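ok trying again, last paste got cut off:
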Amino acid sequence: MQERGSVEQSFNFVNSILNKEDNILEIGCNHGSLLNLLFDDGYKKITGIDIREERLNIGKETYPKIKEHLFLVENNQILPYKDNTFDVVMLFDVLEHIPNVADYLYHQIYRVLKPDGLLIMSTPNKFTNTIFHLLKDRKHPVNFGHISLQTKKSLNKMLQKTKFKKIKFHKLKINSYYHMKLRESFGWLFGNLFIFLYKIVNKLPAAFRTNYWVTALTNKGTSEDI
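nice, full thing came through this time. structure:
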């Protein structure tokens, strides 16, 4: 059962930030593997949504203890929750697939987050992702549903425009999952060459890293009506 990205890396990242009492929503939860790890670690207020019923059904069979926490969302442009519902909204390798992404950030994600609510996300760097797919597949990333790729500058500007504050870009190491994916894509020799290059790139400033890991807080008062 394959997940997008590294679930272990995502878990280690969010577990260093979250509180056990947080009410957490994961958008694009796929099978729910990350939520299952969080549940086992003591996070009980978890909700996962996805637009793919078959992925959710696999997750419910694989992780029966969280099956009541996984939900199908048919309209991927509307979150079916009231304003100020969640302490945390997470999305990993999802943002780049969302059309009208700025509108979604504000009218959906920002809306359902509480005052000082926390957004946690990862998304590919537009520059490095474009180069990767052109080399690997000889196709533009848009062919793989990456319709809203961002640069660091555009992502930071979009979060500011959608009223998020305390925007922080985090530095995470490329891990064994990505090593495996590169070797699968390019073979052992060129895969290891790309791993070496990726390690160099990820030591550079955030604008040049392969993926952005970002946190931000909502900037609204308790009585704000959006």
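cool. Confidence is low (pLDDT under 50) at residues 222-226. The longest strand covers residues 113-124.
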